[in-house]
Amino acid sequence: MKLFFFQRKKLFLYSLAVLLLFFILFNYLSSKTSIALTIKGQECFPNRFWLVRKGVVPERGEYVAFKNHKVDGRATWIKIISGKEGDRVEVIELSDKDRFRVFFDEIGGELTVRGYVFLHSIDPLNGTQVFEAFEKDTRGRELPMIEGGRIPGGKYFVSSPAVRSYDSRYWGLVDESEIIGKAYPIF
User: Fold this and answer.
1) pLDDT by residue (tens digit) across 43-101?
2) What does the angle CA 65 – CA 38 – CA 172 come to, to the nearest 5 degrees?
3) Residues 3-55: pLDDT tens digits?
4) What are the start-end ranges of the E strands in the chain?
5) How far apart are CA 79 and CA 77, in angstroms?
6) In terms of DSSP bridges, do strands 128-134 and 109-120 run parallel, antiparallel, or are they unpaired?
7) Chain mean pLDDT for the chain
8) How far is the C-alpha of 43 from the C-alpha of 101, rounded, in Å?
9) Paired strand residues for 134
């Protein structure tokens, strides 16, 4: 038995070195990057698999991965940074008689428009974005609306192009401390 181990000592040491190298490389990569998966039924983007570069705060128009402690602090959220410091959020809530319903083919039903959220950028190239805010979500739960005002430093307005996206127009701004990093769609 001793002869068996002695003859394979070199192979054992090489295997140990490769394992150690793999562990160090994996540890280094996991401290710099992570992955995120889109949950079925929660799609705001056509992509389902994301690579996240940790510690990088994206610019306006780029994908951001963050933890949303206002809604669910366990999940990793992916949205686009639409507004940042200095931009102005304006909220117009419609009166009950002015609210109207919009039919959505993908849910086979209607949602009532409660009001509008305007995001006025301080950058003239970005102009103003308009978001419809609905009264309830697709499960019939009441939706809050963000309050208007200037976006302070270290806060971001996030959204997605999906009309029914659950984003900053409802639960507010994302704090820089909640940002995991810049997200890249893979597929």
Assistant:
1) 789 899 999 999 999 999 999 999 999 988 889 999 999 999 999 999 999 999 999 99
2) 45
3) 666 678 888 788 888 888 888 877 776 889 998 988 777 778 989 999 999 99
4) 33-37, 49-54, 63-68, 72-83, 88-93, 100-104, 109-120, 128-134, 149-150, 155-159, 174-175, 179-185
5) 7
6) antiparallel
7) 92
8) 22
9) 113
The angle formed by the CA atoms of residues 29, 33 and 37, to the nearest 5 degrees, is 130
State pLDDT tens for residues 164-176.
Answer: 899 999 999 999 9
Q: Which two tokens stand for residue 83?
A: 């507004």
- Global pTM reads 0.86
For 168, phi then psi, to 5°, come to -60, -25
- Rounded to 5 degrees, what angle do the CA atoms 173, 96, 128 make? 40
Q: In the block, which residue shows the tokens 């609210």?
A: 99
* Per-residue pLDDT, 17: 83
R_g of the chain computed on alpha carbons: 23
Domain 57-181 has CATH 1.10.12: no
C-alpha distance across the termini of the chain, in Å: 51
91 exposed, middle or buried (CB, 10 Å; 0-12, 13-18, 19+)? middle
Confidence band (pLDDT; 50, 70, 90) for 146? very high
